[in-house]
């Protein structure tokens, strides 16, 4: 089964409102569609007679060594799609040796997410995603919850000064979580209330010094997620980021930005190897992972496919998604004559329909 087929299976088990919440994007969903289509515009140019029987696909990331260059991007409210929610996702990611990025909008408290991951692996890499708040004490409270739970890195999402306009949710009148669901990490903190669909304080008043303060206030590495402009990638590194994640939030924020993968080469060049560059948005096949790595990413995140796996088959489904991508990627690496991730280089990617 391909990851695209999994979406159809998830659609059958989910009600239309949660399905739309996950599947949808902002505005006319132009960026949502382009994230996937963009990968079709790239082709791989394999090298021959340079491979080996076994390949090493492991990757070292801040606060994590992963079996493959694929991690679980932060997506909200897993209990909305499966009764086991984030606990199932956490066990699956840990069993597959992949980083799980849980976050502020999880329907399971971070302490319980890390505990579930530890049922599957002794030292599972769990990262915590948050938004910066102009009131530093709100940010510090969230950071403290993540540190206390045993997270090994933080992900600060910077592409959301305001919440995106999600057309399908607006049409469906989906503004609050159903009774019994809450953003557990927001309990006791200022915001719209843990059962609001946007329980997370986001603010356009947040600026670079707030990032620097957050970096100073924790001993954990801080990755900055949602960077598209190369100059912002440079600023992120200058303000202490341990990694930069090229992302347009899966097409859920500004509906006029480029596909995420199209922003990768310029960001890679700007960062110049100082910190790892990661990418998410539209990754659906192992060959997409290979293209992203060849264009300079150290690893990629997957958002919706993980949620489809969770909805369709719970923990097993999430494991299937991660294992499928890892196997497809390893196969692609073999077909391209590579032995390790670094063997995929920019000269091995061409624009589809012609070299260069
Ligand atoms: C997201 N994403 C997201 N990002 C983030 O930083 N904090 C969050 O709470 C969420 N929540 C969220 C919910 C849902 C339902 C989706 C689909 C996405 C964005 C996510 O981390 C990632 O950037 C995209 O999902 C990547 O694109 P793909 O893999 O879904 O195409």
From TrEMBL:
Q: Does the keyword DNA-binding apply?
A: no
The organism's place on the tree of life at top rank:
Bacteria
Q: Which GO terms describe its cellular component?
A: cytoplasm
What does UniProt list as catalytic? 249 (proton acceptor)
Organism of provenance: Streptomyces daliensis
Q: Which Gene3D superfamilies match?
A: Aldolase class I (3.20.20.70)
The UniProt similarity line reads: Belongs to the FMN-dependent alpha-hydroxy acid dehydrogenase family.
Supply the name of the protein: Alpha-hydroxy-acid oxidizing protein
Q: Name one GO molecular function term.
A: FMN binding
Q: Where does FMN bind?
A: 74-76, 129, 157, 225, 247, 280-284, 303-304
Tell me where in this chain the FMN hydroxy acid dehydrogenase domain is found: 1-354
Record's CDD domains? alpha_hydroxyacid_oxid_FMN
Query: Which co-factor is required?
Result: FMN
Does the keyword Flavoprotein belong to this entry?
Answer: yes
Q: Where does glyoxylate bind?
A: 21, 131, 249, 252
**Which keywords fit this entry according to its UniProt record?**
Flavoprotein, FMN, Oxidoreductase
């Amino acid at each position: 089964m391909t990851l695209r087929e999994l979406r159809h299976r998830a659609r059958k088990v989910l009600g239309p409102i949660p399905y739309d919440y996950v599947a949808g994007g902002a505005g006319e969903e132009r960026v949502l569609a382009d994230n996937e289509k963009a990968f079709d515009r790239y082709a791989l140019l394999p090298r021959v007679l340079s491979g080996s029987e076994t390949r090493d696909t492991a990757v070292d990331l801040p606060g994590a060594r992963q079996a493959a260059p694929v991690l679980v991007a932060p997506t909200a409210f897993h209990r909305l799609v499966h009764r086991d929610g984030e606990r199932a996702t956490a066990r699956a990611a840990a069993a597959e040796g992949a980083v799980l990025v849980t976050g502020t909008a999880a329907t399971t408290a971070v302490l319980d997410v890390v505990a579930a991951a530890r049922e599957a692996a002794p030292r599972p890499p769990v990262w915590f995603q948050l938004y910066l708040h102009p009131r530093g004490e709100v940010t510090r409270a969230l950071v403290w919850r993540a540190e206390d739970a045993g997270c090994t890195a933080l992900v600060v999402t910077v592409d959301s000064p305001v919440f995106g306009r999600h057309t399908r949710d607006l049409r469906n009148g989906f503004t609050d979580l159903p009774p019994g669901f809450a953003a557990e990490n927001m309990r006791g903190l200022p915001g719209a209330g843990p059962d609001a669909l946007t329980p997370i304080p986001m603010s356009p008043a947040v600026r670079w010094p707030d990032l620097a303060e957050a970096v100073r206030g924790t001993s954990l590495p801080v990755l900055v997620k949602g960077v598209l402009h190369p100059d912002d990638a440079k600023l992120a590194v200058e303000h202490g980021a341990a990694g930069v994640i090229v992302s347009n939030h899966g097409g859920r924020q500004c509906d006029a930005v480029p596909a995420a993968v199209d922003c990768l080469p310029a960001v890679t060049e700007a960062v110049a190897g100082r910190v790892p560059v990661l990418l998410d948005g539209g990754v659906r096949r192992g060959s997409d992972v290979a293209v992203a790595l060849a264009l300079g990413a150290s690893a990629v995140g997957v958002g919706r496919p993980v949620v489809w796996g969770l909805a369709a088959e719970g923990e097993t489904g999430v494991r299937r998604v991660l294992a499928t991508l890892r196997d497809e990627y390893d196969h692609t690496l073999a077909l391209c004559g590579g032995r390790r991730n670094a063997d995929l280089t920019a000269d091995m990617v061409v624009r589809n329909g012609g070299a260069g």
